[in-house]
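#structure-requests
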Amino acid sequence: MTTATVSRWDRFRESFFWYSFKRDKVAIVSFAVLLLMVLAAVFAPLLAPADPYDLAQINIMNSELPPVGMSGADPAFPLGTDAQGRDLLSTILYGTRVSLMIGFGAVILQAFLGILFGLLAGYLGGKVDAILMRIADVQLSFSTLMVAIIVGAVFKASFGNLMFGEIAIYMLIFIIGVAEWPQIARTVRASVLAEKKKEYVDAAKVMGFGTRRIMFRHILPNTLSPIFVIATVQIANAIISEAALSFLGLGMPETQPSLGSLIKSGFDYIQSGSWWITLIPGLVLVVLVLVINLLGDWLRDVMNPRLYKG
């Protein structure tokens, strides 16, 4: 490790961010659980006992086997199997990876659109501000899930079930990302309106810097703190939206497991006693969303000194 790297690590350890993190047990536990789930999802091909996408490894005769510890369980399937005979542990690992991909992808798209439109509206003002914010107001007047359902239904009807299944991940990223950008845009706009009145912006104008450079190199870095907080919470919201759309049949197909599609696939079998097909993926979804929200709350408190009580 180089001297520069050691110096940066020492500065980080001494920073307020690190100090507040190591004192907050909820944040530490939440981060540890989230890191464990992300690593398990990333290395799913190495950790999973079976590949749920490989039809050669699926035996319909193994369908609806209970988890280990129950009567009729098979040690080869620790969490049991679903109605198609797939190992539930493997489908959860792969499904968590799909849900996280959609969550992070949708938030990246939200951040791109929200930051771009928020900067333009806040810095340029006038008609640009009025048009962009009226579009955001109209979109915010509808619930995010309603917008996602409408757009998802239109896309599924246009492409058909087979084609939609092949591009479902990208379509869900697009649908959820487009449905959520106004929240980030309004936050960025409010920060830009405050920042553009400060002296460093006037100094940049006097020095002859162009509008693009002032917006992206001077104002944008000073508006990132609230964006990080919103983005963290929005990842959890995007994962929930994916699960809701999949449960309604407008998200991931059952042949491509996500946490939402796993919950939907087992819902019809609860009455027959195969509760684990829905319950176990549901618990994983709850834990995943919970730890992300807890980290988002901690980030909000740390990045806002008026709220932080540590």
